[in-house]
Amino acid sequence: MAAPLPPPPSGQFRDGVHLFPVRVYYDDTDAGGVVYHSNYLRWFEHARTEVLRLLGIVQSETADGMYAVADLAIRYAAPARLDDAVTIETRALELRAASVRMRQRALRDADLLADATVRIGFLGPGGRPRRQPADWRARFDAFSIKDTQ
């Protein structure tokens, strides 16, 4: 019997920043070999999900509610290309009663590819905004930074 596979990578926290590795695959690109713009949003979503997972917040295991994107602004700075190794940086900038504002950047080495600010709001079981569970807020507060750079 084969040994079980290790869990997929969740990235890591380093100095108040979550770092999530991404590889650019053929299906991420357009006909010119450049990453299609919506894939950055997908990568950012994956990184935010892994932040929650590393904080011990597993949305699928609670009936309290879940986070959803409330607003997002993104600036594209340079293209990623097929086979690039990209790092998604995620920082929590502001923690409020029912939402968290984050900054996410896609980097190839030191080159900025995309820069986004996103606010996720907590929604209760009926889909209406409500306060985050206190223990989830406390976990985000430990990750949160107060610098908006």
Give a structural overview.
This protein is of the alpha+beta class and 149 residues long. The protein has a single domain (12-143), classed as Hotdog Thioesterase (Thiol Ester Dehydrase, Chain A). Helix content is 18%, strand content 37%. The protein contains two helices and six strands. It has helices spanning 38-54, 134-143, and strands at 12-14, 17-23, 66-76, 85-95, 99-108, 111-123.
**What share of the residues does DSSP label as strand, in percent?**
35-45%
Query: What's the level 1 CATH class?
Result: Alpha Beta
Strand and helix order? EEHEEEEH
Kindly report how far apart the N and C termini lie. 51 Å
Average pLDDT level: 90
Spans with pLDDT under 50 lasting ≥5 residues? none
**What structural class results from the helix and strand content?**
alpha+beta
Q: Which word captures the global form?
A: globular
Q: Gyration radius, to the nearest Å?
A: 16 Å
The CATH homologous superfamily: Hotdog Thioesterase
Largest sheet features: 6 strands, antiparallel
How much helix, percentage-wise, in residues?
10-25%
Reconstruct the topology from this structure.
Blueprint: E1 12-14, E2 17-23, H1 38-54, E3 66-76, E4 85-95, E5 99-108, E6 111-123, H2 134-143
Antiparallel strand pairs: 1-2, 2-4, 3-6, 4-5, 5-6
